[in-house]
Amino acid sequence: MEIECAFKVLSKRQIINRGWKTVEQANQEVRILRKLNHTFIVNFISSWQNQTKLFIVMEYLPGGELYHLWKHLRIASNSLIRFFAAQISVALGNS
């Protein structure tokens, strides 16, 4: 079985510089991703780390992250904002 994967490689130094208080907070996010199973949330596959980097493997979804799409669009219509808000709400279980 072939699976397309996305690899995310994070520098532990950059994690801390971006506002994370500790690398442990990033590890906590990985633990949460590992437990999630929802249609609207990318599937976690694996993770590991060495002394300087944290590696995360997730299901590959074309189109990239919502944040980058939002930033690229710059101006979003009300209907597009409602669409994204509804998807996020359903993903978080608040539908």
TrEMBL record:
Gene3D superfamilies: Phosphorylase Kinase, domain 1, Transferase(Phosphotransferase) domain 1. It comes from the Eukaryota. Residues 1-95 form the Protein kinase domain. Coiled coil: none annotated. GO terms for molecular function: ATP binding; protein serine/threonine kinase activity. Keywords: ATP-binding, Kinase, Nucleotide-binding, Serine/threonine-protein kinase, Transferase. Pfam families: Pkinase. This is Protein kinase domain-containing protein. It comes from Fasciolopsis buskii.
